[in-house]
């Protein structure tokens, strides 16, 4: 119950956090009590420093201090915008440049590599939130998705059409 309350408070305040189940490792469970000199769980740490347990977090919440000491979770839309703009040419795909994990991704990688244009990739199989969120954000239901300077170019079919028409290189260079 105490851990559930802690998670509810942190979530309500949009705090970016991760957790560790102390029941999964007795050595960590006992060792952390000794390390922190705090006998109970949950224990909240910020930047490697013990903040305290549930009672302390409730006090911090009541005083308004919790919002000032805890890092905020990045909103999905902001995270997607940041990822889309990580590089001038950004490809969201299944796998990576080195190992495409589906036929469509493999085809687009071959096309991209033949352009000589530098690009970055993001493996959507590694992050379900990005995988689903980007479909809504871009209003494009499939992968791969290619972005140039933060703007959606399209998927494999669009990239193939641009290649066939000779427009791909200018688009990738941001000339169109």
TrEMBL record:
Signal peptide: none
Top-rank taxon: Eukaryota
Gene3D superfamilies the UniProt entry points to: Glutaredoxin
SUPFAM superfamilies attached to this UniProt entry: Thioredoxin-like (SSF52833)
An example Gene Ontology molecular-function term: iron-sulfur cluster binding
Domain Glutaredoxin: residue ranges: 1-51, 89-153
InterPro entries recorded: Glutaredoxin, GRX_PICOT-like, Monothiol_GRX-rel, Thioredoxin-like_sf
A Pfam family per the record: Glutaredoxin
Keywords: Iron, Iron-sulfur, Metal-binding
Gene Ontology CC annotation, any one: nucleus
BP term (GO), one: intracellular iron ion homeostasis
Protein name in the entry: GLRX3 protein
Gene (UniProt): Glrx3
């Amino acid at each position: 119950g105490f851990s559930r309350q802690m998670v509810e408070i942190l979530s309500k305040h949009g705090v970016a956090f991760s957790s560790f189940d102390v029941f999964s490792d007795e050595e960590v469970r006992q060792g952390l009590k000794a390390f922190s000199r705090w006998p109970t769980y949950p224990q909240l740490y910020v930047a490697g420093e013990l903040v305290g347990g549930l009672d302390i977090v409730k006090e911090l919440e009541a005083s308004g201090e919790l919002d000032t000491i805890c890092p905020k979770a990045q909103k999905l839309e902001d995270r997607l915008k940041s990822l889309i703009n990580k590089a001038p040419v950004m490809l969201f795909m299944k796998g990576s440049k080195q190992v495409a994990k589906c036929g469509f991704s493999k085809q687009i990688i071959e096309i991209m590599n033949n352009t000589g244009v530098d690009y970055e990739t993001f493996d959507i199989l590694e992050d379900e939130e990005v995988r689903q969120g980007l479909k809504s954000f871009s209003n494009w239901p499939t992968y791969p998705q290619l972005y140039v300077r933060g703007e959606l170019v399209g998927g494999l079919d669009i990239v193939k059409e641009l290649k066939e028409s000779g427009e791909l290189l200018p688009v990738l260079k941001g000339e169109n």
